[in-house]
Amino acid sequence: MWTGYFSGVMLLRAPGVYRPQADTWLLIGALRGAAIPEGARVLDVGTGTGALSVAAVRAGAAEVTAVDVSAAAVLSARLNARLRRLPVRVHRGSAPDVVAGRRFDVILANPPYVPGRWPPRGAARAWDAGLDGRELLDPLCDAAFDLLYPGGVLLVVHSELCGVDSTLWRLRANGLKAAVVARRIEPFGPVLWSKVDYLEGHGLIEPGQRHEELVVIRGDRPDPNR
Predict the structure, then answer these.
(1) How many beta carbons lie within 10 A of that of residue 83, not counting itself?
(2) Which residue from 69, 99, 123, 211 puts its CA 20 to 30 A from 136's CA?
(3) How far apart, in Å, are the Cα atoms of 14 and each of 3, 29, 46, 100, 182?
(4) Which domains does the chain have, with CATH numbers?
């Protein structure tokens, strides 16, 4: 088990679990800007270390349901929540299956979105998401409306490489209002450097491009009573 600090918070992280980094920070900034209601029920999709769950409780959430397919991530998130006695329940599995029939005020999602192998193996499950990077994004966009209470909010972070317009279109097609609420340019990290030939060969980046834009997209389920 590794130990690291994230935004001043010590987090335990089992080997192979995604390390909180630029996309996590961007999403937490959007969460703070969203001013979620006190006592909100939050779903954290792809929780990893549980960093977003911790941030959600700090922002006023009364309870958080965190989900990840990785056993090591589930262990890490559970330990980080229990050490702080936070109202976070962590489950292993696919979010639509684990929380079927439930609704939330807020969904936070930092899903795998890097174009690459499918199905991924080992640690790459934290980032590889099929040829176009949308193997998990599309099902999330399709499920979000039913997972949210009226007036609920989805905040999802991903790279421009997997199609910002595709996410906006899909959320709107499923009944949500959708807009980009945060952007950040980041140089390629080790994962994208290892995929440069693939990304250039498939026209996902321009020749010589070595940066990506991260975006947070907000989807709102309309409340007919407002």
Answers:
(1) 11
(2) 211
(3) 9, 25, 15, 28, 29
(4) 2-220 (3.40.50.150)
Residue with tokens 């399709």: 142
How are strands ordered across the β-sheet holding 88-92?
88-92, 63-68, 41-45, 104-109, 148-159, 211-220, 177-187
pLDDT digits (tens, 9 = 90+) for 29-49: 999 999 888 999 999 999 999
5-14, 47-56, 129-138, 182-191: which has the minimum mean pLDDT?
Answer: 5-14
Average pLDDT over the chain, rounded to whole?
92
Work out whether strand 177-187 and strand 211-220 pair parallel, antiparallel, or are unpaired: antiparallel
d(CA 122, CA 16): 7
Mean pLDDT over 168-189 rounds to 97
CB 60 within 8 A of CB 122: no
Which tokens is 213 given?
Answer: 């834009």
Look up residue 129 and give its two tokens: 């998401």
Strand segments, DSSP code E, in the chain are 2-6, 9-13, 41-45, 63-68, 88-92, 104-109, 148-159, 177-187, 211-220
Contact partners, residue 58, CB within 8 Å, separation at least 6: none
- pLDDT at position 109: 97
C-alpha span between 34 and 159 (Å, rounded): 20
- Residue written as tokens 């176009």? 132
